[in-house]
């Protein structure tokens, strides 16, 4: 596309083309502990996300907490995004509020290098269709870059209103829907045809993607791209190619359990994305009030780890997760708001290690035992149950009550090696355990004496 060549300017029609295929996303906005915009972290976030292949990024959008940003810091967010992504990924800046303020945001987006504007809902007060048309028209005419209007909240444009805007505003090139009103979408799509690019914008739109595709809304923006970009792209590619087997698997294994956590409290749509980013080691800091962070101690904790929470957390954590991130992953899993009881409370949690004290696995478990109480309270006690290549400890954990008070900290040996070497192992490695996360990864190396004739793996094979 031409924007990859120019890297800076993009006509409204070029933006329309870029938005018409591929996965779109809203990067989180990074804040420090004092809730100030943190440009270095934001730059690093964009650099991390871009290679995964989103076709357009919406800076300072809904997931980017646009409505918490005043104009000066908004300009800094857009400028950082535009400069970081220049020549690689187009940036669309969010704009919203009353007409005068929305115009200011739109002009700041254009001035600071954005290739387009996403016009978010105006404000709480309901508006007439004539008022909405005047509002959108004023914003469109205040800039030259492309504008996408977002039907959500109090903004409920009809097909008749959009026809008027299409005639009056050449740079209005897109329509995004977050209302979920399929009848309205069909009416708009039928009457406007290809005049607009159509984008799905429901919260966690992946679960709505198939329903929106039928009336002609093929693309959507993904919030979970912020912390599982590889999975988000996998889902989009499967959806776009008609691979419903993969779509169904990912919805069942990740998205539905994820929604179960998100729906525990009002305003968690952004909070859970920031929590997910923290779990995978890409923290964006806290959310700004009136949103609340999804963390231990909010909304109650459970005595037992919620299986939906466990599945969702497992799905969010990639293979490269380090030990520091498991602490946050476990905290989120155990603090899903599913009951009034607290975990772990006064009852100690036993952490079974199937190897003798002093080894690497034992050392990891003892670090966890020190750090987990800081997140969850209570006490965590390491209990070494060594022997039979770890299978004694594994069998003990299998027989323990499934109440969250017996955890197994182990290497892969008892799961993938011992069952093939030892007859009569008293557990099923695939069925009897529920993996929470990967704490650490450590390579194994194969060495030979320096004077050995063996110089490679093929040298070891029979000839």
What distinguishing features does this structure have?
alpha/beta, 463 residues, disordered N terminus, eight-stranded parallel barrel
Topology:
Elements (H helix, E strand, L loop, with lengths): L2 H4 L5 H8 L4 E2 L13 H11 L6 E4 L11 H15 L5 E5 L3 H13 L4 E4 L9 H13 L4 E6 L7 H10 L3 E6 L4 H11 L4 E4 L8 H5 L5 E4 L6 H13 L2 H19 L5 H12 L27 H10 L6 H12 L14 E5 L6 H17 L3 E5 L6 H9 L6 E3 L4 H9 L42
Parallel strand pairs: 1-2, 1-8, 2-3, 3-4, 4-5, 5-6, 6-7, 7-8, 9-10, 9-11
Helix pairs in contact: 3-4, 4-5, 5-6, 6-7, 7-8, 10-11, 11-13, 12-14, 13-14, 14-15
Write a brief structural summary:
Helices cover 41% and strands 10% of the residues. It is an alpha/beta fold and 463 residues long.
What do you see in this structure?
The protein is α/β, with parallel strands linked by helices and 463 residues long. The protein contains 17 helices and 11 strands. Helix 3 links the parallel strand 1 (24-25) and strand 2 (56-59). The model is unreliable at 1-7 and 296-341 (pLDDT under 50).
